[in-house]
Amino acid sequence: MIRHAHRSHGLWLAFILHRLSGVALALFLPVHFYVLSLALTEPARLDGFLNWTDRPLVKAAEFGLVFLLAVHIFGGLRLMALEFLPWPSRQKSFAAGAVALALFLSGGFLLSAM
Amino acid sequence: MTESPENLSIAVWRGDDSGGGYEQFDVPARQNQTVLDVVSWIQQHTDPSLTYRFACRVGMCGSCAMMVNGEPRWTCRTHVKTVLKGNRLEVGPLRNLPVIKDLATDMDPFFDKWVASEGAHHPTRTRHDPIAPVDPTEGNRVEANEGIECINCAVCYSACDTVTGNPDYLGPAALQRAWTLFNDTKDANRGAILDAVSGSGGCHNCHSQGSCSHYCPNELNPMKAIAGLKRASATRFFRRSS
Q: A90 and chain B: CB distance < 8 Å anywhere?
């Protein structure tokens, strides 16, 4: 059986991207807050960790994080506009625009970090 | 109609609600044939026990919808050559509905939800009163008009993963019907419609995946209708709270 062929269209992909980015950010945030808490509890360890994050591979991973955050923000704004503002007809274009803006922001972050 | 030399290889789902699987059939390829033509050919020439449902064959009655290569479609208006993969085609019963037999699904849950979403007109007048004039250019009427061409084919219901995840969800067609009536200025109980669609299983379950609008064969926009219901029920909630 050809499973899930009904999902291969832009707005469904926008939905799953919003969901997965949300889950990934929810997993990231506790780690983020734990690292921030080191500033109060173990400043020396925090400095060591921050030096470690200067590695190129970590910067590339941070590009992914910035992309997830941006795509979740813009995707969420699109959904709120869809539900609470007068209906705009170009939903697929807005979803594509949210991904493009997220790539622009995260790409800019990566360029400035290199 | 000329017949091309090769046969089509058609996989048709056979079984009932307790289970089943795909069965292969060879069907002569023709220059012009719809998916419904192919299913009818199998039933008329190979296996008379194949069960499926159709009536008008011109895209008006909404009874012949099936899954074609994993996507819900009205089979009487779907030309085989637009969906063929190689010379293969897979035809199954609609998703999200119980199967009666083979390609015929039980539509009761689908129509029960039309009733549950207050999809019935609440009249303001009796048959003895004069007919109320309707201005076709008025804003609410324009909004209502967008949904009235629904043929109840359940393609949107079958495409919706929110229905798959929550069998109590009213689904795109019933909610679009509710939105159409909500915008009908002749409807006497718009509050009852919002009550019916804003509770558990109502419009706020929608994740805006857009499959309903993507697959609607009449190019209606149930996702827009559901967004309208979300907006109307949220507005009412905040007005009541303030």
A: no
Q: Which residue of A has its CA nearest to B85?
A: A2
Binned at pLDDT 50, 70 and 90, residue A1 comes out as low
The mean pLDDT value of chain A amounts to 91
pTM (2 decimals)? 0.90
Say whether domain B3-105 belongs to CATH 3.40.50.12780: no
Q: CATH number of the domain at B108-241, please? A: 1.10.1060.10
Range(s) of chain B covered by CATH 3.10.20.30: 3-105
Give the residue carrying structure tokens 């897979």: B90
Asked whether the predicted pLDDT for residue A63 surpasses 90, the reply is yes
- Interface with chain A: mutation pick from B10, B157, B208, highest number of A CBs within 10 Å: B208
Tokens of A105: 């922001």
B183 by Cβ neighbours in 10 Å (0-12 / 13-18 / 19+) ranks as: buried
Architecture of domain A8-113: Up-down Bundle (1.20)
pLDDT of B1? 47
